[in-house]
Design brief:
The chain is α+β, with helices and mostly antiparallel strands. The chain has 2 helices and 4 strands, in the order E-E-H-E-H-E. The strands form 2 sheets. Strands 1-2 form a two-stranded antiparallel sheet. The protein has a two-stranded parallel ribbon with strand order 3-4. Helix 2 links the parallel strand 3 and strand 4. The longest helix has 13 residues. The chain is globular and about 35 Å long.
């Protein structure tokens, strides 16, 4: 399973959820994904944000070149 990255630190999904809880629900989160990102993985990351009560989530995508 791919790792998540927070401020340059690679974390597994459970560590990622714990880290989000440490940052607090008011911390804005940007999820960066591209066409190679598995939809299931994107949902897992969004679910982790929800579990940490994060209210400001955005998804950044790259345009195909």
């Amino acid at each position: 399973m791919a790792a998540c990255t927070v401020a340059g630190e690679r974390l597994d999904l459970s560590q990622f959820t714990a880290r989000l809880k440490e940052l607090g629900e008011q911390q804005p989160i940007t999820i960066r994904a591209d066409s190679s990102t598995d939809y299931k993985r994107l949902v897992e990351v969004m679910d982790a944000c929800k579990a940490a009560a994060v209210s400001q989530i955005s998804v950044a995508t790259a345009r195909p070149q």
